[in-house]
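Can't paste images in this forum, so I'm doing it all in text. The chain is below; anyone willing to post the predicted structure tokens underneath?
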Amino acid sequence: EDGLLQEAEPLWRRSLAIREKALGPDHPDVAEGLNGLAAYYEKLGRDAEAVTFYDRLLAVREKSLGPEHPQVATVLDTLARLHYYQRQEAQAEPLWRRSLAIREKALGPYHSDVAANLHDLALVLQVQGKYAEAEPLWRRLLAVQEKSLGPDHADVARTLGLLAVLCRATQRQKEAEALEARATRIQSIKR
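Text version of the structure:
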């Protein structure tokens, strides 16, 4: 499979070049070529190259669809994730903030994509030690999950555990213990 992946690069690049020449660099079909090449580099673990193409894709999507379109949020989310994986939390944070704002406006507060953004933004804030900013996001995520998935869902238990980590980091041991106890109770439910 790796050999086939390696052979695909010149084909992806050629396809993109043809689209750009025929349609112009900002055409929506060029965006699809940029997305394919970015995803290709991401699959190979060549994150820096993937970021370059996702940045170009973001510019095309913003120009063709508008800066508040959900597809723009998807590219922002992908870019944030790549920066986070490269331990570039400061670059990931504003991308996740913007993605969250777009998705909340377009999809509503209880959509699964909004929940995913709440998780990711809370996590990147917590990793940076921005506990006061992360905590309300964890609590919002918990409310979304409890409403959409039910109070005994496994995802609720995971969020409780992450919120407990934050409570321990902010010297609130009793609260952390209560959150962990609830998470443990949820995890013990036979499914």
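The longest helix spans residues 2-23. DSSP finds nine helices and no strands in the chain.
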